[in-house]
Design brief:
- It is built from ten helices and 15 strands.
- It is of the alpha+beta class and about 375 residues long.
- Strands 10-11-15-14 form a four-stranded mixed sheet. A three-stranded mixed sheet has the order 1-9-8.
- A hairpin with a 2-residue loop joins strand 12 and strand 13.
- Helix 2 runs antiparallel to helix 3.
- The longest helix is centred in the N-terminal third of the chain and has 17 residues.
Length: about 375
């Protein structure tokens, strides 16, 4: 009888990760474990089948062989019996690809690491764009040894352990696996006389200054990619990239919301009651707003086109001015007298002069009378 597909046995997809495979196996093991199904032959077979599938799929080496050759890839009796390529050779080729070079030498050339720089700018700089200089720490090629890691006048020697291949071949039963050379770490070379400047690393830590252009409209959290300005590569590899992450400093007047700006406009209660004209700041200068009579706290006045034009926007956003009616403080005796007189007059017809307060009092009265 042919064996079922191991992924089907565990009920997982072929691209399932290790955690998913482990979880699926535990669920089946709990269900079909012999201790919980004493005397049940079918459950015992299901348990063994799940255990066999898990032992293969949980092992990255076995799983790679299984994905490539099916059950024959993990069957010790499936070794080559004819004149064709043996399974051990095929398996070796698989891992040769994984480790970077098959039967040939392994390249130890690596791309440099990416760098991140947090840059704080003002709202005005974000709106109009700016240009600034930054200093970043980075690993650069050692000038003394030109990145070889060896003392000037000398050069690295071929590793005696792997004969300069960067890999060693290990035989495990019928498996033949290539692994990174533990002596030279895959470079194929050893440095007998390290460079005094970089201690054999081939790179040294330096500070470099870059001129960064910030486009207009950037927002908090936006990233600007500077290609090739990360750390230098290893053994001649390409450099990484620099990512400048923009952070907006807190503004004393405005709060940004996408392309729109918000601000609070405090006005006196007499100006709110009688109406008038007030001057408000914008990023382009000052603007005037006509405040109608009987304006209440929370009223929003929208100035179109006075916001910010985002990096991906076609038009500027708006400026939204939120009215906050300010209660006067440090009153003079005469001011208090006038306010008391106003209160006396207004209270005689409260529903007319303060309809919201009258409505609220009515609701509160009804609530407590229930």
């Amino acid at each position: 009888m042919s064996k079922r597909d191991y992924y089907q046995v565990l009920g997982v997809n072929r691209d399932a990760d290790e955690a998913t495979i482990k979880k699926a196996y535990r669920k089946l093991a709990m269900k079909y474990h012999p201790d919980r199904n004493a005397g049940d032959v079918k459950s015992e077979e299901m348990f063994k089948e799940a255990k066999e599938a898990y032992e293969v799929l949980a092992d990255s080496n076995k799983r790679a062989a299984y994905d490539q050759f099916g059950h024959a890839g993990v069957d010790p009796n499936a070794a080559d019996r004819g004149g064709h390529q043996g399974f051990s050779d095929a398996f070796s080729d698989i891992f040769g690809d994984i480790f970077g070079g098959g039967r040939g030498t392994r390249s130890n050339v690596h791309r440099g690491a990416d760098l991140r720089y947090n840059l704080e700018i003002t709202l005005e700089q974000a709106a109009r764009g700016t240009e600034t200089k930054i200093r970043i720490p980075t690993m650069e090629k050692c000038d003394a040894c030109q990145g070889s890691g060896s003392k000037p006048g000398t050069s690295p020697k071929a590793c005696a352990t792997c004969n300069g291949h960067g890999q060693v071949r290990m035989q495990q039963g019928f498996f033949s696996i290539q692994q990174t050379c533990p002596k030279c770490q895959g470079s194929g070379k050893v440095i007998a006389n390290p460079c005094a400047s970089c201690q054999g690393a081939g790179r040294i830590r330096q500070q470099k200054t870059l001129n960064i252009k910030i486009p207009e409209g950037v927002d908090d959290g936006d990233r600007i990619r500077i290609s090739g300005e990360g750390e230098s590569g290893v053994n001649g590899g390409p450099p990484g990239d620099l990512y400048v992450v923009v952070h907006l400093a807190t503004h004393s007047v405005f709060r940004r919301d996408g392309d729109h700006l918000h601000c609070e406009i405090p006005i006196s209660f007499t100006a709110a009651a009688l109406g008038g004209e007030i001057e408000v700041p914008t990023l382009d200068g000052h603007a005037k707003i006509k405040v109608p009579a009987e304006t209440q706290t929370g009223k929003i006045f929208r100035l179109r086109g006075k916001g910010i034009k985002g990096v991906r926007s076609h038009d500027k956003g708006d400026l939204l001015c939120h009215v906050v009616i300010e209660t006067p403080i440090k009153l003079t005796p005469r001011q208090k007298e006038l306010l008391e007189e106003l209160e006396t007059i207004s209270s005689k017809d409260g529903s007319r002069h303060s309809p919201r307060a009258k409505s609220w009092m009515d609701k509160a009265r009804d609530f407590f009378s229930e």
